Description:
The protein is of the alpha+beta class. The protein contains 7 helices and 9 strands. The chain is elongated. The termini are far apart.
Amino acid sequence: xVLIDEDLxxxxxxSVLVAVVAALAGAYLTATxxxxxxxxxxSAPLDEIELTPGSLLLCESNVEINVVLGTHWSHIALVLDxxxxxxxxxxLTPTSHTVQMQPAREYIEHELRDGRHRVAIRQLCGxxxxxxxxxxxxARKSVGAAEYEHSYWKPAFHxxxxxxxxPPVRRGSYFCSNIIADALRAAGVLALGEEEARNxxxxxxxxxxLPTMPDYAYDPMLLVRMREKRRAAAPTPPPPTPPPPPPPP
Length: 249
């Protein structure tokens, strides 16, 4: 029989209780404080959406950022053409540390798989295909020149307080949204100043009118959903077996 230290048991149970309370509080705050905008957005199945280069993927993936910024959008990724022509998705996360490129549809399916994280897309229209310029930008950033830093707290803190003079994000300090803004700025898609691009946050990409160069524009947001699988029809029961004929007299 294995004896469990009582103090250790209290610590474990206390930690579990704190985690449960934090999860419930986060879910409650997200549902009550964060505005619900999903009912107003049109949606379409992923297999019906054309993922055009330069399009933006807005993801709901971090409850802390959702609550602090009063938005459902806490992460952003960018679509561009892969070398084989299939769309790929580029993003930067704390877990990846550096810029990652992966098949776009698999990326979206992964976000939607558990049914909790929502994904919206803003298609880029007009102008020449920006893939070549975007690839040049990310090729320079993928050799160790762009590592994830949690410097997003600076613009977030500044927007929350509006009172304190928070220094802007320094040049070369990247997180998910400002590296996308910097790439689109370098590719001639977004009309942003250098400091403005460095201090942009994920919900800024949900603004109705993004500042684009004259040849480009972003469509309104469209929610992406998985197509519901049809339930297989119940098998038809076999006809009843007729009773055997009566024996001859």
